[in-house]
Amino acid sequence: MRKQRAKKRYLAPDPIYNDTVVTRFVNTIMLDGKKSIAYTVFYEAMDKIKASTGEEGYDIWKKAMDNVMPAIEVRSRRIGGATFQIPTPIREDRKMFLMMKWLVNFARKRNGKSMGDKLAAELIAASKGEGSSVKRKEDMHKMAEANKAFSHFKV
User: Fold this and answer.
1) Which residue range forms the structural domain that includes residue 127?
2) Which end is more exposed in the chain, N or C (fewer Cβ atoms within 10 Å of the end residue's Cβ)?
3) What is the pTM of this model?
4) What pLDDT is attached to residue 155?
């Protein structure tokens, strides 16, 4: 067990948009420690979004993040030999983590030539309220709604 709580590490903002959330998103995209390639993928996706929609890629990315970010999740809790799915509100940093993980993972599963193309397509779909990542959020909310009867068993 820890003697004290781990210190929160703060990220440096990205070079173009000067936003720490972009850096966190790029860290989610990154594989095998190749951060420069992850930045290239992200900025390529922003350029492709601007080319296809005519809007600023950063604004579309923000809108997609808002549409994918969950508000509530279900957690398993064992009570009297039975396992219940208990809906619980999510901490802000976990909301961000889930949203970024879903966007990147579903972008990787898409069809397309490059990761930049796939990420751009997923972000555009998410900003319109479509796509797999938005569906995952809605499924999570439906599950929480279905198990609302067990919400008195707080975790």
Assistant:
1) 20-150
2) N
3) 0.89
4) 58
